[in-house]
Design brief:
single chain; about 130 residues; alpha+beta; FAD/NAD(P)-binding domain; three-stranded antiparallel sheet; two-stranded parallel ribbon; 4 helices; 9 strands; about 30% helix; binds flavin-adenine dinucleotide
């Protein structure tokens, strides 16, 4: 979704095809964002919507050693606890604002590329 947003901002005609039926995410994946990710989202003006829903904490670490990054020279010298289902929901809102269509419940089965673009084959034959 971040790539789709970046491509849209660069003026590329982009769409997302997702084989999941909807935004629901089975199981757990990401539990949060690292400082650098928050910085990148800040550059795009969307960090605040993540910060508003998550919990700021010192989460950086190396192996089992916890690292306190509160003295790093960044506005976001912390990590953010936020489940991936919320991260994806907020990113879906961002790409929707950028008018990126998301086609749920369909599977990419192949694609071909030439100088004029990319043709994508979908499981439903479209
Ligand atoms: C247990 C776990 C914990 C994690 N914790 C963290 C964390 O704390 N912080 C963090 O930043 N990252 C974490 N990650 C990594 C993070 O989840 C991934 O980096 C991120 O989800 C990758 O995003 P993605 O869009 O590249 O891939 P995905 O999130 O895997 O998205 C790919 C999507 O493509 C769809 N798809 C696949 N093939 C097709 C097809 N042929 N046609 C249509 N759709 C298709 C899939 O259904 C899927 O929804 C964790 C991952 C796991 C598994």
């Amino acid at each position: 979704m971040v790539l789709a947003g970046e491509l849209a901002l660069a003026g590329v005609d982009v769409a997302i095809v997702e084989r999941r039926a909807n935004q629901d995410l089975p199981g757990t994946r990401a539990g949060g964002l690292q400082s650098r990710t928050i910085e990148v989202f800040d550059q795009r003006g969307i960090a605040d919507r993540f910060l508003a829903e998550g919990q700021v904490a010192q989460v950086a670490g190396f192996a089992v050693t916890r690292l306190d990054i509160s003295d790093l020279p960044t506005r976001h010298n912390y990590g953010l606890g936020l489940w991936q289902k919320h991260i994806e929901r907020l990113l879906a809102g961002w790409v929707a604002e950028l008018k990126v269509p998301v086609y749920y419940g369909n599977e990419v089965t192949g694609f071909s590329q030439d100088d004029t673009g990319v043709d994508v084959q979908l499981a439903d034959g479209r």
